[in-house]
Design goal:
There is one protein chain. The strands form four sheets. This protein has a four-stranded antiparallel sheet with strand order 1-2-3-4, covered by helices on one side. Strands 7-8-9 form a three-stranded antiparallel sheet. A two-stranded antiparallel sheet has the order 5-6. Helix 16 crosses helix 18. By secondary structure, it is an alpha+beta fold. It contains 18 helices and eleven strands. Helices cover 49% and strands 12% of the residues. The protein has three domains: 78 residues, Double Stranded RNA Binding Domain; 106 residues, Tyrosine recombinase, N-terminal domain (DNA polymerase, domain 1), CATH 1.10.150.130; 199 residues, Intergrase catalytic core (hpI Integrase, Chain A). Strand 5 and strand 6 form a beta hairpin.
Length: 432
């Protein structure tokens, strides 16, 4: 059958074309036609044949695409077909290239070193002060080498983590090690954890820290916290605490009195809540989630109260019992006391001389207890495990911990801590 001759369309015909129950078409010739949809839309359609296959594609909607423009599109398409180019396939390939470039651009944005670092830091479960120190270390010691900043020193962009070399990282760490080896050592460990995280999340393919020989990484010398263990100096310290009237007043005074009896970590001491205190059972209970070791398989931390500690709590309750914190701030009573206040008070009392064994900080009371409890082991007879339980030192060996994590040393700790409180009373009363 011979092809029916098609009369070219006119704008008048197109404008006057009305929708019907079913879509229909108005041919313009040479493969171009206008599809009239039941909802009134008018869509250009271009038909063509390539490699023996009939195909069609849209050319836009009328009147956004005029009759003249539709014919120009058809002619352009036909020209490509004559040159062996399939317009539909070409369009798909162009779209794929654009999408690939967009993905590359997005990857470039999301895998910037500072963004990966902050993402990794947000996944860590550590005490607030530890998290802050780790974040500051990266921002202070590593970011300046790979980041760009605005006038307010806010990071605007950074080098791709995949482009950072192990040589660059080693240079940063070794330079830091010349001044503070311990900080450099911790920084290297954290970099290893960061790059391990990046590999596991497919941001990079290689952990470059594995290419660094650990023997060339600065190693910090382990130093013990200064602590008072001489009984004469300890007696002076305890008497000075009892008569303290400096900054922080009665709050700081009782913080120091209490921690000398119960060697809590500074953070747990300052954030101790009244809801944790049970006068009837003479214990304090701190949720495991608030302890340094947050292993959910471990029990909440329970510490018995010697009668001297109960007396301090009853005394301070008259001042702070209305609120949340056992030791609220001396200026901001709605917040807990700042641990720095207690350590400063010790310094003002004259206990800041490490050379002569007269330095004590809030954390030092744990060391004082640990050292003297072991020295006087024959007097109290407590086991090593009981002394460790008082300090909430958890066994590092996972196998051992699996068998001991439910062990209850409460009553053994009660005897030990009462001995300790009585011992401190004797030390305080003695004036050698």
């Amino acid at each position: 059958m011979a092809n029916r001759k098609v009369s070219p369309l006119t704008d008048t015909e197109i404008r006057s074309a009305k929708p019907r129950d079913k879509e229909y078409s108005l041919p313009d010739g040479n493969g171009l036609q206008l599809i009239i949809k039941p909802d009134g839309r008018k869509i250009w359609e271009i038909r063509y044949t390539i490699e023996g296959k009939a195909k069609k594609t849209t050319g836009g909607t009328y009147p956004a695409v005029s009759l003249k423009d539709a014919r120009a599109k058809r002619d352009e398409l036909k020209s490509k077909v004559l040159n062996g180019i399939d317009p539909i396939q070409e369009k798909k390939e162009i779209k794929a290239i654009i999408q690939e470039k967009e993905m590359e651009a997005q990857t470039t944005l999301t895998t910037q070193f500072h963004l990966i670092t902050y993402e990794w830091l947000s996944t860590l479960k550590s005490a607030e002060i530890t998290a802050t120190k780790r974040k500051r270390a990266f921002e202070r010691d590593i970011f300046p080498h790979f980041c760009k900043y605005d006038e307010n020193h806010v990071v605007t962009s950074s080098k791709q983590i995949s482009e950072i070399t192990h040589g660059e990282l080693l240079k940063i760490i070794t330079e830091k090690g010349k001044a503070t080896p311990e900080t450099a050592s911790r920084l290297f460990v954290d970099c290893n954890r960061l790059w391990t995280y990046a590999v596991s999340h497919e941001y990079i393919d290689l952990n470059i820290t594995l290419r660094i020989d650990k023997s060339v990484v600065p190693k910090g010398e382990k130093t013990n916290y200064a602590k008072i263990t001489d009984e004469k100096i300890l007696g002076e310290l305890l008497r000075s605490i009892d008569t303290y009237k400096g900054d922080g007043g009665v709050i700081v005074k009782n913080v120091l009195r209490f921690v000398s009896l119960l060697p809590l970590r500074a953070d747990n001491l300052c954030k101790l809540k009244w809801e944790s205190v049970n006068f009837e059972k003479a214990i304090i209970t701190i949720p495991r989630s608030e302890m340094k070791v947050k292993n959910k398989n471990l029990s909440d931390f329970i510490l018995p109260l010697p009668h001297q500690a109960i007396s301090i709590l009853k005394e301070i309750k008259e001042i702070t019992g209305w609120g949340k914190w056992v030791f609220h701030g001396s200026r901001n009573m709605k917040n807990h006391v700042n641990k720095v206040s207690a350590s400063r008070a010790l310094g003002r009392m004259g206990f800041n001389d490490e050379v002569n064994g007269r330095k004590q900080t809030l954390h030092s009371f744990r060391g004082t207890f640990a050292s003297l409890a072991r020295t006087h082991h024959k007097e109290h007879g407590a086991t090593f495990e009981t002394m460790e339980a008082v300090l909430d030192h958890q066994e590092g060996n996972k196998v051992v911990r699996a068998y001991t994590h439910k062990a209850d040393y409460t009553e053994q700790m009660r005897e030990l801590l009462q001995w300790w409180a009585d011992y401190l009373d004797e030390v305080k009363a003695a004036r050698k």
